[in-house]
Structures are given as C-alpha cells and as structure tokens.
C-alpha cells in the first residue's frame, strides 16, 4: 500500500487590530479573475474530449464557489490597490507583446529580404564564374591554335616558315616601277643634269636661307 504525504500548512496569526483596515475584494478584481479563468477552463476542456460535459460542469462549480468566496474575502488595502492595477498591467503587457510580435514580424521580413538578396548575389556570382571559365577555355583554345600557326615551341621561340626561293629572286619594287617608264636611261640622265645644275643649287640655297630667317623671327617673337 502506498503512503500519502500530507503537506503541513503553517497558519499565520494576525493581530485583530490589523484586520480592521482590511477591505473587501473589489468587483473589478473579481471580474478580472473570472475573465482569467475562462481561457483556462477552455484549455482544460480541449484536453478532455471524452468527458467534456462532466469536466465542464465540475469546473463551472469550482469557478462559482471561488467567486462566491471572493465576494466576502477581506484583503489588506495595499493588496486591493495591487489587484485593481492587475487589469491595467495585463493590458500594458498585451500591448507590449503585440508590439514585440509586430517588431519580430518586421525583422523577419528584413531577414527574408537579406537572404533573398544574398541568394541572388550568389547566383550572379556563380553565373559570372561559369562565364569566366568558358572565356578562359576559349582563350586557351585560341592560344593553342595560334601556337600551331606560328609554330612556337615550349621555350617561347618563334619558328616562321621559310620564304620560297621565287620570292627572293623576284624583281624589286623600284625595278618594277622603272619597267613602266619608257626611255629609262634618258630620263635618268635628265634628272642627274637637273640635280647638278646651278639653277637647282641656287633654289636649294634660297630655301635654306628662307628657313634660317623664319627661325630667327620665331626666336625674336618668343
């Protein structure tokens, strides 16, 4: 057989003169107490779906008995003030709780936006990385093709293909131009006579003197 532990209650004796200042529990406090009990009863009933009616009846009886006892309950004056302010304190707590929930909701929205931005940046970086890899591969392919065309070995030396012998033995540009001019020997003689003539020399000397004087004028102006 199990033993039942009885909790001993300590009684506190108060002087009769101290009870004279006590006051009945105000109606607002009783109404607030009733308001607090309603959600508690509903929560208890939600956990007892099988014996819902029986439990509901029992809880209502307990509630009525408690409220009846509170009607005749005497409490110290300072306790009356505390109980009167309970409703206001609860309203303040609910308002603060609502403000906290709204703040948390806004914070969650900001966090979601930041996460979305980070994910977008990550996708952009990955896309850019893929493009860089593609371009790098293309550059390497082009370099390899260029090496094959220019025949560059591993040491960096350039090997160009040899020119054909026909290109080395071909006529020069001056020779090709002279072939287009008839009477080449006569033209060359005339040019030589003109270059060595006194008129040409005088004209060249005139140009030299003119340039010297222009340089002198520029220096004076400076």
TrEMBL record:
Keyword Isomerase (UniProt): no
Predominant place of localization: nucleus
GO cellular component terms attached to this protein's record: chromosome, centromeric region; nucleus
Record's subcellular location: Chromosome, Centromere; Nucleus
Record keywords: Centromere, Chromosome, Coiled coil, Nucleus
Residues annotated as signal peptide: none
UniProt name for this protein: Centromere protein Q
Residue ranges of coiled coil: 104-152
Pfam families: CENP-Q (PF13094)
Species, as recorded: Galemys pyrenaicus (Iberian desman)
Homology family: Belongs to the CENP-Q/OKP1 family.
